[in-house]
Design a protein that fits this description.
Blueprint (H helix, E strand, L loop, with lengths): L12 H68 L28 H10 L3 E2 L3 E2 L6 E9 L8 E11 L12 E8 L5 H4 L21 E4 L9 E11 L2 E12 L4 E10 L6 E3 L8 E5 L8 E8 L7 E5 L10 H11 L3 H14 L6 H22 L5 H10 L3 H8 L3 H13 L3 H12 L4 H15 L1 H11 L4 H11 L5
Helix pairs in contact: 4-5, 5-6, 6-7, 7-8, 7-9, 9-11, 10-11, 11-12, 11-13
Length: 488
């Protein structure tokens, strides 16, 4: 086939112009689209600016409300109880300082004492708050009504500071009131808490108890201020209970801070000792009852508060900080009073962690060690009474050794039966905790059966024993032979 020739037709001028025009108009579309994009960005920026403005406005509004409420509170306190905001004097110029005692001028110590006496209040002995004697603490007391002995109680603590302005030429020293703290004693229910699990059953337990003594902790104490102990005494059953409140004086703010209330069935006064590995001493409150050691230990912790920069935090055995099962077993045993087994568990954990524990766990270990030292010392002692020997052994977790004393003679068994019958749950708690950690320990099951036999009968003890170890007839027969000694 012959190739058909293709005739090329040149474009007309109008077509060329239209093509050129099309090419020229395309960039315009891009510019228009770009402008539209810029408009979207501007709208987004406007929205963000609007949100930011709203947040700032809300913040200003909330701050204003807080400022108004604070100002209102300060105004009310200045009118009705100005002594509660005396700390404002630390920030006010001399001409604006708040005046007290209905006097515009500072007073001598004698004038202060006379002024209090005129108000039927009793000034106590002053306690220096610094080495230069530029400030002192004055306890204010009152006479208790219907009281036969030791009838004065502390109702207020006052801080006075030496006044330097305009009185330097005077032969006597003048002081100005810097701060006050109203004192209320703890309730009776709090004072007897270590003695009973149900303090509300006692009569008059809600009455506040008087605090009639105040002492300054001497020697090296934590922080740079002054630690004070206010205390009183109360007799309950056969116990001479001491109770009180710890107060801290912050010299930087001239502020008195109530820290913690305390009670001691044995009449022991709180003391500062270094229990943990920290350089700072801890506050120890002894709540030991008989052979049952119990110590509350508080550590000084810094807090981000202007007027109260520190607090006392109790070392707790409730919250575990490690996932190790032996560590949890240690805390379980310690909460039930098995201090020596708990100390062994936790010491083992520390050794396997290359002698390193978190600070909280180390503090727990030190608290457990403090108790373990007491129970171990008691169990190592040779007791004349078999029941006392068994009690010391059981408290220390020496189950097998206690059984040896029980089986030594029928007389021992009868005396120990009286001990078991008087148990109010402390020994039973130890049995349950020990079996949770070591469920197959025969001696622990034996003491559980002995306790139940004495308190709830042989049938209850056998039922409990069968549930604990249903597959071992030999073990069951052995423990039954022990429980039968209780009836001989």
């Amino acid at each position: 086939m012959a190739n058909r020739s293709r005739k090329l037709t040149p474009k007309s001028d109008s077509q060329n112009q239209s093509d050129v025009g099309a090419k020229k108009t395309r960039p315009k579309r891009k510019r228009i689209e770009k402008k539209q994009g810029d408009g979207g960005i501007e709208k987004t920026q406007v929205k963000k600016t609007y949100k930011l403005s709203s947040i700032i406005a809300i913040a200003i509004l909330l701050s204003s409300v807080g400022l108004v409420l604070t100002s209102t509170w300060l105004g009310v306190m200045l009118i009705f109880n100005p002594e509660q905001v005396v700390w404002l004097n630390n920030f006010l110029p001399e001409w604006a300082k708040i005046r007290f005692d209905n006097s515009e001028n500072p007073q001598t110590l004698a004038q202060i004492q006379v002024s209090l006496s005129q108000k039927q209040q009793i000034p106590g002995e002053t306690i220096p708050l610094d080495e230069d004697e530029k400030s002192f603490l004055l306890p204010v007391m009152r006479q208790r009504a219907d009281c036969l002995s030791n009838c004065k109680e502390i109702v207020e603590l006052r801080v006075y500071q030496l006044e330097d302005l305009n009185y330097q030429a005077q032969p006597e020293k003048f002081y100005r009131l810097a701060n006050t703290l109203t004192i209320t004693g703890p309730e009776a229910s709090f004072a007897i808490t270590p003695l009973t699990d149900t303090p509300t059953e006692h009569q008059d337990v809600s009455n506040p108890l008087p605090l009639n003594e105040i002492n300054r902790f001497e020697g090296k104490t934590p922080a740079s201020g002054v630690w004070l102990n206010l205390q009183g005494q109360q007799k309950h059953d056969n116990y001479a209970i001491s109770y009180g409140q710890i107060v801290y004086y912050n010299p930087e703010r001239s502020n008195l801070i109530p820290m913690v209330s305390w009670t001691s069935p044995g009449g022991q006064t709180p003391k500062w000792e270094q229990i943990t590995g920290n350089k700072t001493k801890e506050l120890i409150i002894d709540q030991t009852i008989g052979l049952e050691p119990k110590f509350k230990v508080y550590q000084v912790k810094s807090v981000n508060l202007y007027l109260n920069p520190i607090e006392l935090e109790e070392i707790s055995l409730q919250n575990p900080v490690l996932k190790d099962s032996r560590y949890k077993n240690a805390l379980l045993n310690s909460r039930s009073g098995l201090w020596s087994p708990a100390f062994e568990y936790l010491t083992s954990v520390k050794q396997q962690r290359k002698n390193s524990l978190p600070a909280i766990a180390q503090a727990q270990l030190d608290l457990i060690r403090l108790h373990s030292e007491v129970t171990k010392s008691q169990a190592d002692k040779a007791w004349v009474s078999p029941s006392e020997q068994v009690l010391a052994d059981l408290i220390d977790g020496r189950w097998e050794k206690a059984l040896q004393v029980f089986t030594a003679s029928p007389q021992n068994a009868q005396e120990i039966a009286i001990l078991l019958k008087q148990d109010q749950g402390r020994l039973w708690q130890r049995v349950e905790a020990a079996l949770e950690v070591e469920p197959n320990r025969q001696a622990v099951r034996a003491w559980g059966a002995l306790l139940l036999t004495v308190q709830q009968g042989e049938e209850k003890a056998n039922s409990w024993l069968q549930k604990r170890n249903p597959n071992s007839q030999t073990d069951f027969d052995y423990i039954q032979s022990l429980t039968k000694q209780l009836s001989h």
